[in-house]
Amino acid sequence: MITVTFVEANGKSRDVEAAVGATLMETAIKNSVPGIDAECGGACACATCHVYVDPAWMAAVGKPQPMEADMLDFASEVKPNSRLSCQIKLKPELAGLKVTTPVKQG
Ligand code: FES
Prior knowledge:
Blueprint: E1 2-7, E2 13-18, H1 24-30, E3 50-53, H2 58-61, H3 66-72, E4 82-84, E5 98-100
Parallel strand pairs: 1-5
Antiparallel strand pairs: 1-2, 3-4, 3-5
The chain binds FE2/S2 (inorganic) cluster (FES).
FE2/S2 (inorganic) cluster binds at residues 25, 38-40, 42-49, 71, 84, 86.
């Protein structure tokens, strides 16, 4: 298990335990993290699992694949550090990962 931090748009922060091999979206849903809707269940087909990766973690998380980048076009207020959390697979190197959830999804 690793710990990841979800910060809400209002600044409220929460650390949750996450299983290596799970996606960041699955971790958010399992822990009822507000602001992650994940309507498509992780199929990279809805963009309602949008998060902003903390700048310090961008290199470790990596860039979106083309399919994810296309789907991100449907998210609101996309920024250079936007990612779809269902496409971020957790690995030991991401222990301590910090992401912020957007004001609204979709
Ligand atoms: S859960 Fe639908 S794109 Fe991530």
